């Protein structure tokens, strides 16, 4: 058993860490405040090959392994969770399903520009009445000659306001419930598609989360992704891998909390000594550090499972569940260690606290991860 990263993985960590410090750190506070989508740094991430890491070079990607991809998201999220999830969504939720279920023509037309980062993708499954129970899709697609006519609306779509292409799910045979769902590749500029205003969110505020409205949107038959009626499988298999990205995001936020809290504990004084000399604070930091390492082990293990062709349904659900809970706890403790200053927007731990919460909600809530894990234990 070998816990060392390869030379390439170490190089990727060093490159992304340096990029995050140089390009992302100076704007992280401002984009959190304004909610502005960070297009300029996203373009720079594209130049570094971060938007198509899991895509082979022949389709415009950088063809790294999943462990490297997790490392990149961890390093970005350590500084800014919005940048972390933008990379995660484009790689895992937009490129991945087209790479695995798309036709050659779909890959050339949609995957190549997304993997290069010339265009962005988003994943549109959730609806106002269909979140955890994703099979309850109300959006419909009806075959009309050589095309499908789509109607309905999607909610909470990360990068919805910035993407040019959506991997979108709709009901093609309602009576069949989850077996009646089909995945479509939907370009943003089609007639009848409207992007809603951006959500005002607690955290990850720079991620252009929007609603998408579909009114008689005509999509050619060639844009069905995978088989008609197989959309639920496409959606769930995509999320199984996506969870590795969110686990890495949670890991990065928690590491950021640890970095900040340790540095502060070394300099802040009370009762004639530094906070870091007090056992109560040492124990909090020791617990965060331990949780960060467990999150790291689980996250890289799930990524390694994907890289080695092993089943990663259970390991990615466990990694996301643990890392998300650890991240929220780490952020709460980091704010506590900062005391009143932790409650102020002048310090990053306040932003980390707000950003941390989403990791327990999207790509399957904590409860849904437990449902997935229990299912893998044979309990249904
Ligand atoms: C900022 C943000 C970004 C998002 N990005 C995307 C995106 O890019 N694409 C996309 O498609 N969706 C996205 N989502 C949607 C997200 O995946 C859903 O919000 C999430 O899956 C939960 O669904 P819901 O909000 O409908 O909650 P509900 O499903 O209504 O759940 C409410 C509560 O009930 C619990 N619950 C539900 N079912 C069970 C059960 N069987 N057992 C135990 N507890 C249960 C849940 O865990 C939760 O605590 C995003 C959401 C947010 C907030």
Task: Give an account of the 3D structure.
The chain has 380 residues and is α+β, with helices and mostly antiparallel strands. The chain folds into 3 domains: 7-119, Orthogonal Bundle (Butyryl-Coa Dehydrogenase, subunit A, domain 1); 122-232, Beta Barrel (Butyryl-CoA Dehydrogenase, subunit A, domain 2), CATH 2.40.110.10; 235-376, Butyryl-CoA Dehydrogenase, subunit A, domain 3, CATH 1.20.140.10. Helix content is 52%, strand content 15%. It contains 10 helices and 10 strands. A 4-stranded mixed β-sheet has the order 1-4-5-8. A 4-stranded antiparallel β-sheet has the order 2-3-7-6, with no helix packed on it. Helix 6 (231-267) packs parallel to helix 8 (313-338). The relative contact order is 0.12. Bound molecules: flavin-adenine dinucleotide. The site of flavin-adenine dinucleotide has 23 residues, from strand 1, strand 3 and helix 10.
Describe the SSE topology:
Elements: H1 7-34, H2 39-47, H3 66-79, H4 81-101, H5 104-116, E1 121-124, E2 140-144, E3 147-157, E4 165-171, E5 181-187, E6 193-198, E7 210-220, E8 224-225, H6 231-267, E9 269-270, E10 273-274, H7 279-307, H8 313-338, H9 348-356, H10 366-376
Parallel strand pairs: 1-4
Antiparallel strand pairs: 2-3, 3-7, 4-5, 5-8, 6-7, 9-10
The chain binds flavin-adenine dinucleotide.
């Amino acid at each position: 058993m070998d816990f060392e990263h390869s030379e390439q993985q170490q190089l990727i960590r060093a490159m992304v860490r340096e990029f995050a410090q140089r390009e992302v750190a100076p704007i992280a506070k401002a984009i959190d405040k304004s909610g502005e989508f960070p297009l300029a740094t996203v373009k720079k991430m594209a130049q570094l090959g971060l938007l198509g890491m899991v895509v082979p070079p022949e389709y415009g990607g950088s063809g790294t392994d999943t462990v490297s991809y997790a490392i990149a998201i961890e390093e970005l999220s350590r500084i800014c969770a919005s940048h972390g999830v933008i990379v995660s969504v484009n790689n895992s939720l937009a490129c991945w399903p087209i790479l695995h279920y798309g036709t050659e023509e779909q890959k050339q037309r949609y995957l190549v520009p997304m993997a290069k980062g010339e265009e962005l993708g988003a994943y549109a499954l959730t609806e106002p009445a269909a979140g955890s129970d994703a099979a309850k899709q109300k959006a419909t697609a009806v075959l009309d000659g050589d095309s499908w006519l789509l109607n309905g609306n999607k909610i909470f779509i990360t990068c919805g306001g910035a993407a040019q292409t959506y991997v979108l799910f709709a009901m093609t045979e309602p009576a069949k419930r989850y077996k009646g769902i089909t995945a479509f590749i939907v370009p943003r500029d089609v007639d009848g598609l409207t992007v809603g205003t951006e959500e005002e969110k607690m955290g990850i505020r720079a991620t252009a989360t929007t609603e998408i409205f579909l009114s008689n949107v005509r999509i050619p038959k060639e844009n069905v992704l995978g088989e008609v009626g197989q959309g639920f499988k496409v959606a769930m298999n995509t999320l199984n891998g996506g969870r590795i990205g969110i686990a890495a995001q949670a890991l990065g936020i928690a590491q950021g909390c640890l970095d900040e809290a340790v540095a502060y504990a070394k300099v802040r004084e009370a009762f004639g000594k530094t906070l870091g000399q007090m056992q109560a604070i040492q124990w909090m930091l020791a617990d965060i550090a331990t949780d960060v390492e467990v999150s790291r082990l689980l996250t890289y293990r799930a990524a390694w499972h994907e890289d080695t062709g092993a089943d990663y349904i259970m390991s990615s659900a466990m990694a996301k569940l643990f890392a998300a809970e650890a991240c929220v706890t780490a952020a709460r403790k980091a704010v506590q260690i900062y005391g009143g200053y932790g409650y102020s927007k002048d310090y990053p731990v306040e932003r980390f606290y707000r950003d941390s919460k989403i990791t327990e909600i999207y790509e399957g809530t904590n409860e849904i991860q437990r449902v997935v894990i229990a299912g893998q234990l044979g309990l249904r």
